[in-house]
Design goal:
The chain is built from 11 helices and 5 strands, in the order H-H-E-E-E-H-E-H-H-H-H-H-H-E-H-H. The chain is α+β, with helices and mostly antiparallel strands. It has a 5-stranded mixed beta sheet with strand order 4-2-3-1-5. The radius of gyration is 19 Å and the shape is globular.
């Protein structure tokens, strides 16, 4: 297996955007991506070690499960991570992301997610020339970027380090700054830094449940249970 590298991730993320009608500069709304790609997605509380999981059927149907106890910013990153598994994983298999973070496949998925949600060209356009060199980036700009791209503080900081805007020392300095308190101080709403979406279902679960029920593949009880998930 080819080792994970940033360049490959950048190319793959740009390819995904182009093939699905997104420009290389616009921030992505992950729920819009899920609907456009017809991916059945369910948000449910999972164990604290899990971020989510995905699976692809032999017929091509795609499914994602997201841990709703994670912050909204982290959920968005997990969705992008799972998109790699669904569309580009050479050996896709159902698995819980968060358990095998050191594998090459997981590293590739993380690099892809970072490049997909936070395109380098787009980020550079958002940073003034004064702040783009010499570790001069301000926390105000970091906040604006993470809010614009709807990602966690950690995801944004590691992306900024990867593209050379900040170094490790500055990254660690920013990580120590309280997220919610600082967001309030700068006038941002705080939902990005909190859990949410519990019980949300994106996709055609109702239609699928009806079809299975009519074909006699699930009982009426199971059918009602599935409908209750989206009610």
């Amino acid at each position: 297996m080819r080792r994970a590298n940033v360049r490959d991730a950048e190319v793959l993320a740009a390819k995904f955007r182009a093939e699905n009608g997104f420009s290389c500069s616009e921030p992505l709304d992950t729920k819009t991506v899920l609907r456009k790609c017809n991916i059945l997605t369910v948000y449910r509380p999972l164990s604290e070690k899990a971020y989510g999981m995905s699976l692809r059927s032999k017929s091509g149907d795609k499914f994602i499960l997201i841990n709703s106890t994670r912050t909204i910013g982290r959920q968005n990153f997990t969705i992008a991570h799972e998109l790699y598994h669904l569309f580009y994983d050479e050996n896709p298999k159902p698995h819980v992301c968060g358990m095998e973070a050191d594998s090459q496949t997981e590293k590739k998925a993380n690099m892809f997610a970072s490049a997909l949600l936070m395109p380098q060209e787009s980020i550079l356009q958002q940073i003034s020339s004064k702040e783009s060199v010499g570790n001069a980036l301000s926390i105000a700009t970091v906040l604006r970027l993470e809010q614009l791209y709807c990602v966690s503080r950690e995801s944004m900081l590691y992306r900024l380090k990867t593209i050379g805007i900040i170094d490790e020392k500055k990254l660690q300095e920013f990580l120590k700054i309280p997220k919610i308190e600082t967001a309030k101080e700068y006038g941002y709403e705080t939902s990005l830094y909190l859990p949410g979406n519990t019980g949300l279902v994106i996709g055609n679960l109702g239609a699928m449940a009806r079809e299975l029920f009519e074909k006699g593949k699930i009982s009426e009880g199971h059918y009602v249970e599935l409908l209750n998930m989206i009610s």
